[in-house]
Specification:
Strands 3-2-1-4-5-6-9 form a 7-stranded parallel β-sheet, with helices on both faces. The protein has a single domain (3-158, 185-224), classed as NAD(P)-binding Rossmann-like Domain (Rossmann fold). Helix content is 38%, strand content 18%. By secondary structure, it is α/β, with parallel strands linked by helices. The two termini are 24 Å apart. It is built from 6 helices and 9 strands; from the N terminus they run βαβββαβαββαβαβα. One of its GO terms (molecular function) is oxidoreductase activity, acting on the aldehyde or oxo group of donors, NAD or NADP as acceptor. Residues 6-80 form the Semialdehyde dehydrogenase NAD-binding domain. It comes from Formosa agariphila (strain DSM 15362 / KCTC 12365 / LMG 23005 / KMM 3901 / M-2Alg 35-1).
Length: 225
């Protein structure tokens, strides 16, 4: 019997790529999705619950797995209301982590962001930093906060600001050397490889910056060849 993975955010860029990777991974026999909209994929491995993620606490009996991957996140343009933004980027990951604690799920892997800092004056960075701090305080055995820089990859939706930002970052990327290396854009598939490696191994850092994500992904991809 293979392992069970819970994925939150499977309809997003990285969550969608993670779902595809899990479908191909023979070590996982069941993938449980909690989402407000369907991923649109019918597969024997997938069990999908379409719910209000703000009420995730109500689904404790269904929240059972070996590992939880949290790929939840929004943007200022999609969610200009700061209260709702906070409920998404802070509230949903915390609710998922609390369910891990209640149901003895020992591995929780969450996408945060480069620059996450609970003391930051920037709302986005502060929200991510506060989320990291409170989730890590729960002391789930294997908790990892991935802090990617600008995530690149093919999205189903077009975001003008993100598109222009990607072009600029790609042009400037050769200049990001030394301490600036962490600011280089990172492929969604790279994050997925790192998440899958972390689900199988322990790592010395709980907060994992973008350049370390790339190093971990190399380990995963090397093991597959």
């Amino acid at each position: 019997m293979g392992k069970t993975a819970i994925v939150l955010g499977a309809t997003g860029l990285t969550g969608g790529n993670l779902l595809q990777a899990l479908l191909k991974d023979r070590s996982y026999s069941r993938i449980v999705l909690f989402s407000r909209s369907t991923c649109g994929i019918k597969h024997a491995k997938i069990t999908e619950y379409l719910i209000d993620l703000f009420e995730l606490d109500n689904y404790k009996t269904l929240f059972l797995a070996d590992v939880v991957f949290c790929c939840i996140g929004t943007t200022k343009s999609k969610t200009p209301n700061k209260a709702i933004y906070h409920n998404i980027d802070y509230g949903i990951p915390l609710a998922a982590a609390n369910l891990c604690l209640k149901n003895n799920i020992e591995t929780f892997i969450c996408i945060s962001a480069l620059g996450a800092d609970a003391k930051s004056k920037v709302f986005y960075n502060r929200t991510k930093g506060e989320m990291e701090a409170v989730v890590l305080s729960l002391k789930i055995k294997n908790t990892y906060m991935l802090q990617p820089s600008l995530i690149v990859g093919g999205r189903n939706e077009f975001r003008l600001g993100e598109y222009l930002g990607k072009i600029l970052m790609r042009l400037l990327s050769p200049l990001f050397i030394g301490k600036l290396n962490k600011y280089k854009p990172i492929e969604s598939e790279t994050i997925v490889s790192a998440m899958l490696w972390l689900a199988e191994h322990t790592y010395e850092l709980e907060r994992i910056p973008s350049e370390k994500i790339k190093e971990i992904a190399i380990k995963y991809d090397r093991n597959r060849t």
